[in-house]
Each structure stands twice: as structure tokens, then as C-alpha cells.
Amino acid sequence: MAVTPQTNTDLGAIAEALRSRDDFIICGHVSPDGDCLGSQLGLAAALKGLGKRVTCLLAKDEPIDERLGFLPGAAELVPAASFDGIARTFVAVDVPTRERIGEAAAALLEGCDLTVTVDHHAVDSTMTDLVYVDPDAASTTMLVWELAGLLGAERAGDVAQCCYTGLVTDTGRFQYQNTDAAAMRAASEMVEAGADPASVSRAIFQNRTLPSVRLEGIAVERMTFGAGGAYALSWLSCDDFEATGAVKADAEPIIDALRSVAGVRVACMLREQGDVVRGSLRAKDDTDVAAVARSFGGGGHVAAAGFTLSCTLDEARRLVDEALAATFASDEEGACRA
After folding, report:
1. CATH number reported for the structural domain that contains residue 250 in this entry
2. Which alpha helices (DSSP H) does the chain contain, by range?
3. What global pTM score does this model have?
4. Of the four listed, 111, 168, 257, 333, which is most buried by Cβ atoms within 10 Å?
5. Which residues form the DDH domain (predicted)?
């Protein structure tokens, strides 16, 4: 485990601080994925098992991905803007910055007398009193799993199911580069504690909507390649979503289809959303897609990153294509010098 320079404590100290408190709000990032919701709900289950009062917040008042609705506690999520309960301790999981928790959650953060971050996204800033960020962890739920143990909480049942969900989604069913021995050990512990891999797989990976499959057909048909096939790029417009009856979550699995093409090292999926374009990047080698995302004001992990562009879809395609072409040109120049 290699914590970031911004980390100012360890999980043991965080566990000690949390044990002494009773009222918690737990928040993740906007548009929460499996690791985000798994971290929130897994930690909430652990704390509730110790008799704590806990509310899990949605950073933005929007529906979660329906495929994650099976998670224990998902039906009790409260939009941050609607929360009117007691807030003494704010725990941010799977999110490192105020921008990613939204304005309503940031206001609640300010009102708490203890704030904590547990995450695996490396950034150059902090937003809480206690910070533990380990970018080597395959998922934030791996850290929550460890934290739950240090709390002395019962990890069987809901805690295990939530933490396993975050781990299996952030490793792409244990296919991504972040799948290491530590991730496999943690997965084994979670299953031994009651996580059900088959039910998680059915809910998330074998439960796509028909609009999602139709969107994938559009994206695959549009797919373009660059750097001799080293990267693949595709895009979806607002009209595509309207024509297929799809929602935002239906586009999430599509980038894996692009990434799966033989010879492709990096896949990029662009999605028009109102007056901005959201971009997702995935690598299946050591290409640093986070560097590409940062060039557009985004961020993420070496193998998985994202960004937002305030421009037209056509302009976004041009900008991203140029950035990816430059990335692979730099790789070739470096290889030649070596």
C-alpha cells in the first residue's frame, strides 16, 4: 500500500476516531458507480452494526444506476440537498475533492466538527481533517473492508456484499490491471464473509437494458481508430439516447466493447450531456490515460479516467483524437530513443 503525500493518518486512527462518535453522514461522488455506492453502504452497514446513526448521501439528486439498486441500503440513500438530520461526522468515500461531492454536500461538510476521507484517487489537495488515500488499492471498498475490521464491526452479510460489489466493478470482474494479489485476497475474505459473487454478477453484468444494447450497437458502428489501431474512439449524442430510450447509466458498459477489440490499447467513449461532453478513458496496458484526462481538467487512475469538455460533440471528438494521437506519438518517440 502506497499512500499519497496528502494522507495525514492511517486507517487505525480513523477507526478510533469513528468509534467515539455516533452521528454520521457518508457521501461519495456525483454519478456514483459500484465502488462509490459499495463504499458508502458497506461502511454504513458496519457503523450501524456498532449502534451508530448513519445516513448515506447522494451528492446529486439523480437516480442511481438501476443495476446497483440491489445493494443493501440503496433504497435509503438521501440527496444531500434534502438532508435535514443531525450531522456531526462527515465521511467522504471514493471522492477526493469538493467539486466531486457537489454544493449541497460541501455545505454539510462545512457544518461537521469531524471530517474524514477514505479513497484511492490521488489528487494534490485535501478537503477533510483526516485523510487516507491509497492509490494502490484496487477499490475504495478494499479500504472500507479493512476499516470495518479495525472498527471491530461484524463484516458478514451486507458489509461483505457491498464491499465485494465495489471491488468486482472497479477491477472489471478482475480483468483490469489493478487486479493484484491484495485484491484477490480481499475478494476471498469477502466471499467467506457472505458476499455472493453470482448474485452480484447477475445484477450488474447480466442485467443490461435493451436500450443499452442498442446504444452499444451505435457506438460500435461509429468506432474510429488511431495510431495504427492502438486507440479506439466513439461517441453518443443526446439524439442517440432519445432514439433508443436510453438513460445515462445505459452507456456505462459500452466502453468495454471498444476496449475489447484486438490491438486496442486505449478506448475512449464520449457522451453528449446537455451543453457538455463527458469522456471516459480505459487502458489495457500501461498507457497513462489519467494524464490525458488531466490535460482536459479531469483525472482518475492510470488505467481508468474521465473528463468533461464544454464544447460541441464534434469539437470534443477532434480534441480527444488529437490528444490520443499525441500520446501514442510520444510513446513511439520514447521507444525509438530507447
Report:
1. 3.10.310.30
2. 11-19, 34-49, 102-111, 140-151, 158-170, 181-192, 197-204, 210-222, 238-244, 254-259, 289-294, 313-337
3. 0.90
4. 168
5. 24-166
